[in-house]
Amino acid sequence: MKGSKREERLIILNTLREGKITVDESIKLLNAIDGCSDSSFEFGSGSNINMEEKFEKFTSSLDGFAKEVGEKAKNTYKDLEPKLKSGTKTVIEKTINVLGDINQSLTESLENMKKAEEAEKCNESCEENCEKNCEENKKEDE
């Protein structure tokens, strides 16, 4: 008979784990197996454990843990916020400087291209004038 009670307990606990029944329902079922009428039942060791009390303690400690984690996260954010703002400001400033350098470089390149075009036009003009002068000199020599 002891083996079947154990199997029934495991079925109830698995059903609870799967979320098919609530904690209160599982306590009632476990109590029914053990022949208890209140919310306490015996485990194999013979000790009497009040499940509702244990559940309340667990819930309370879990709430405390959640509050502590929340507080630590809040403090961490407070510590990091100025560093993040400063880092962001630095990145923006450096980006602006790099963009300024790129703008200057492109402006200089454009000016150099214009000067090169003007020089090329001037050379072409000089060559044309030179050819005309040469032709005129040849005509005069003849």
Number of strands: 2
Shape descriptor: rod-shaped
Average pLDDT: 83
Q: What sequence of helices (H) and strands (E) makes up the elements?
A: HHEEH
From the alpha carbons, calculate the radius of gyration and give it in angstroms. Answer: 45 Å
The major beta sheet can be summarized as: 2 strands, antiparallel
As residue ranges, the low-confidence spans are 39-48
Question: Based on helices, strands and strand pairing, what is the structural class?
Answer: mainly alpha
Distance between the termini: 140 Å
- Give the helix level as a range of percent: over 70%
Beta-strand content estimate: under 5%
The main sheet orders its strands as 1-2
* Tally of helical segments: 3
Give a structural overview.
The chain has 142 residues and is mainly α. It has a domain at 1-46. It has three helices and two strands; from the N terminus they run ααββα. A two-stranded antiparallel ribbon has the order 1-2. A hairpin with a 5-residue loop joins strand 1 and strand 2. The protein is rod-shaped, with a radius of gyration of 45 Å. It starts with a helix and ends with a helix. Residues 39-48 have low confidence and may be disordered.
